[in-house]
Amino acid sequence: MEREEIQELQNKIKEKVAFINPLKTEMQQILSGQEELINGLILALIADGHVLLEGLPGLAKTMAIQTLSQCLNGQFSRIQFTPDLLPADVTGTTIYNIKEHTFNIKKGPIFANIVLADEINRAPAKVQSALLEAMQEKQVTIGGETHILPKPFLVMATQNPIEQEGTYPLPEAQVDRFLMKLLIKYPKRDEEKTVILRMAHTELKLKALQVASLEDIEEARKYVDKVYIDDKIFEYILDIVIATRPKCHSELSSRQADADLKDFATLIQVGASPRASIALAICAKASAFMDGRAFVVPQDVKNVARGVLRHRILVSYEAEAENIDSDALINTILDKLRTP
Fold first, then answer.
1. pTM (two decimals)
2. Is it true that the peptide bond before 152 is cis, omega within 30 degrees of 0?
3. Residue 251 is part of which domain span?
């Protein structure tokens, strides 16, 4: 891409990105101290991906996705996953009409712009597969008929990290389908005080104002796709992903010849897949767009690396014994690899 083309694209992106700051500000009016979560949700939405969110109860996971829906005036749907849930409860089913002697299609809660899949690991494998298939294909089949899901379409699935009894953990191959995995933590003291002041009322229900539209998201996606990535950035993305595969370290670029990654052979059981490389590139482009740039810089890749990779790396028993998680390994990789 020529410099003149990049400059022209830069001017257009500055116009198209105007809705991002008002969207963040309005969400922060409802959610206090969850900047990383807010940024991650918006980034996933404009990158046309889905989010797996892990956090303890009571940290505003449901409120976050509901607030995003209100800010966009999109259709919101919440699915509470339980062990007795059936795939038809998610996608929909056919119902026999006695009067007309016909089968009518009743669409499930998956037919919404923004879907909250609450405690996805409490549902059996068939239900999880039905949801993940809909996420991947952006369509479902009911009674032999294919139905396209609304656009834009975002699924935020939540997991409770402390309760394992009565759960069906997502297989690694299915977790890989999520564009990003975000972690939500306790707010700071002053942030929690703000939460109390806002929420400690028996009748008050906070509702976000619409500050953007679904059309803004669709338009943003077109320009995210046009953001320029230099070949050096592509090589850097490949080096990061290949570094998570201890048996493939010989394929690192010559630029990373002095990177000390010997310890990784015993710390990583399974590395990131090629889907991670694609996700890193897309999310880096979305990050650049959110900053109003028409080109990706290395910091964009670093900003999204943890969210993209943490659920795609399976740490070994040795790493668990030393209390080393995937985030720590990603940080090490980012520190040891040479930035272009």
1. 0.89
2. yes
3. 227-336
Q: Is residue 222 part of a domain?
A: no
Cα angle value 228/37/162 (rounded, 5°): 130
Does residue 284 sit in the same domain as residue 151?
no
CB 30 within 8 A of CB 206: yes
In this structure, are 89 and 182 located in the same domain? Answer: yes
Answer whether 315's CB lies under 8 Å from 269's CB: yes
Question: pLDDT tens digits, residue range 155-190?
Answer: 999 887 776 665 677 777 778 889 999 988 888 888
For residue 12, being part of any structural domain is answered with no
Q: 164: which 2 tokens?
A: 């394992």
Distance between start and end Cα atoms, the chain: 19
Residues 162, 280: one domain? Answer: no
Q: Name residue, tokens 């969400």.
A: 27
Last residue of a domain, one of 183, 199, 217: 217
| Dihedral sign for Cα atoms in the order 317, 335, 230, 215 | positive
Domain count, the chain: 2
CB within 8 Å of 310: residues ≥ 6 apart: 181, 183, 325, 326, 327, 330
Contact 237, 206 (CB under 8 A): no
Rounded to an integer, what distance in angstroms lies between the CA atom of residue 231 and that of residue 183?
31
Q: Report the alpha-carbon distance of residue 228 to residue 1 in Å, rounded.
A: 7
**Beta carbons within 10 angstroms of residue 147's beta carbon:** 17
With b for 16 or more beta-carbon neighbours within 10 A and e for fewer, the 210-244 pattern comes to: ebbebebbeebbebbeebbbeeebbbbbbbbbbbb
pLDDT in tens, 283-323: 999 999 999 999 999 999 999 999 999 999 988 898 888 88
Residue type, 100: E
Under DSSP, is residue 187 helix (H, G, I), strand (E, B) or coil?
Answer: coil
Shared-domain flag, residues 148 and 253: no
Residues 173 and 62 in one domain: yes
267 lies in a domain? Answer: yes
